[in-house]
Specification:
By secondary structure, the protein is α/β, with parallel strands linked by helices. The protein has 2 domains: 38 residues, no CATH class; 125 residues, P-loop containing nucleotide triphosphate hydrolases (Rossmann fold), CATH 3.40.50. The protein is built from 9 helices and 10 strands. Helix 3 runs parallel beside helix 6. The chain starts with a strand and ends with a helix. It binds adenosine-5'-triphosphate. The site of adenosine-5'-triphosphate (ATP) has 12 residues, from strand 2 and helix 1. One of its GO terms (molecular function) is ATP binding.
Amino acid sequence: MLSIKNITSAYGETVILRDVDIEIPRGSVVAVMGRNGVGKTTLLKTVMGLIRPLKGAITYNGRDITHLRPEARALEGIGYVPQGREIFPFLTVEENLVVGLEARGKKAAVPEGIFALFPGLRDIQNRKGGDLSGGQQQQLAIARILITEPKLLLLDEPTEGIQPSIVFEIENTIQFIKEQGKLSILLVEQYMEFALRLADFCYVMEKGSIAFHGNVGELSRDDIKNHMAI
Ligand SMILES: Nc1ncnc2c1ncn2[C@@H]1O[C@H](COP(=O)(O)OP(=O)(O)OP(=O)(O)O)[C@@H](O)[C@H]1O
């Protein structure tokens, strides 16, 4: 589905990602873990096209998209939920959802199915985005991307700063989406247990490189923890 090969990315002169290789098989959840500042967000921005890599290639469904613009990647079905969620604070929940659809040139009516995935959003449709809790904003940000029917979802630390009950709801939603098998997910997380319950494959980054990776069912938790602690 997505193949990241030898990617090196920088901000100006400062190289952040070094020769990163990641494979996301169709229908799988791939977790990228690592401490603060190792380059996880930079990786997602590079996949989304917000940062141009200095070298390497990104192939999506067999096509080289390394030089494609972010908007074109979104139209090809790559959906990005950034760390800051980027909810419009003065728009209602419903308006935030509709904006997500319109941005991709789709019909501006919120599909009912999204409230089955996020029941909590149904009751707060008329609340302003800025008045929601962090967890509700995170759910809204994921919902806003999901209604555009992406094929690959990029999630940047969806559990960050969120109360446990909503983390649990988000986990169930991602699990449900995974079981449907239509979507592949690249999940950046620091909450290891959450990531490992959802992921098929995991990669641990250290200082911009992949230090450790494998099939979640085959890796030892201690090995992962040791690499996370470095
Ligand atoms: N716009 C930028 N300009 C310059 N340096 C940046 C920029 N954004 C991030 N960095 C630096 O790049 C490095 C990697 O940052 P990045 O946000 O990708 O890490 P991260 O693993 O996602 O961390 P976190 O978990 O804190 O989000 C950090 O040292 C950070 O200070």
